[in-house]
Amino acid sequence: MENRLSEKPEPTEVELELTNHCNASCLACPRDQLTAEKGFMDEDTFHTIIEKYENYREGLAINKIAEGTRYPFISFAGMGEPLLHSKIFDFVRHVRSRNFKAVLFTNASLLNEEKAGRLVEAGINHLNISFWGINEREYRLSMGLDFSTSLKNVEYMSKLASKNNISIIISWIKNKYITSTTQEIVDFWNARGLEVDIEEDNQPWNRGGYLSNDSFNEDFDSYPPVNYDFDVWCSQMFFTDTVCWNGDVVICSCDYYKKENVIGNLKDIHPDEITNKKHEILSCKAKIPVCLKCKKPDRNYPLGSSPWDELLSEDEKQRYYYFKNQKR
């Protein structure tokens, strides 16, 4: 069977870093390694990026097969808290007006009733909420935020979401301060009508070598490294375009910290050029330091690959999917 997956990298996700300022101090985010300039995405940069992807998406293989223009979706994420950006609601509204799906990654500490209502009005489709721990101590030591405030915000947002066809998932990372079991955490959120992400058994990722073992009961060296025998040896690079607040595109989210591998700036180039440069990196098996140091408990990237996962056969997935216990 002919492999329907595009030969060159094509984004199913565009991750926009509206800002790299953050009000949290999450253990699994090595912000002490951040040397990139801090700032906020301006409106001109944002609108330029969205316009370019609006034109680019028509030719994507995934949209031809799925018979629509659903991809890429736009995720507001990055190194910072998107709700710190004063234009977040305008940006979500604009993304939806251009027929993109809008996804927000947030710690919810700023998601009060007024902001929750504005998000719903703007048309947000999905929220991925980072919430580590199910009691005050676990949460404070894991994220450095106020447990009661954030929980109240999540519970209110959940009520609005259920009435407006908005999906929410709770994500968390195991660390030395969380003593609740996975099942206790699942039960805590299920009782509030919310789903919990338990992919990769909630183990931490070493973030391209920038995160140490100190706060975790894990040995990162035991995790699988990049396997250059794969055609698509990094699925995040293949399926996601990672855009910094100033328009720079980096190879993946690990490169937010120091921006040592900037592919180009979307104010100056077209997404086609990003595709071609990524294809060159993947094809030549580039031994980039941040890639060589990257250790993950599961090397797949389902957020980006899931549209293809649903369409391709097991044989077709061999180009990018790290099957468990697979030898290559």
UniProtKB/TrEMBL annotation:
Keywords: Iron, Iron-sulfur, Metal-binding, S-adenosyl-L-methionine
Domain of life: Bacteria
Xref: InterPro entries: Aldolase_TIM, Radical_SAM_PqqE_MftC-like, rSAM, rSAM_sf
GO molecular function: catalytic activity; iron-sulfur cluster binding; metal ion binding
Spans through the membrane: none
Positions of the Radical SAM core domain: 17-168
The keyword S-adenosyl-L-methionine is annotated on this UniProt entry: yes
Coiled-coil annotated spans: none
Protein name: 4Fe-4S single cluster protein
Organism whose genome encodes this protein: Anaerobacterium chartisolvens
Organism placement in taxonomy: Bacteria, Bacillati, Bacillota, Clostridia, Eubacteriales
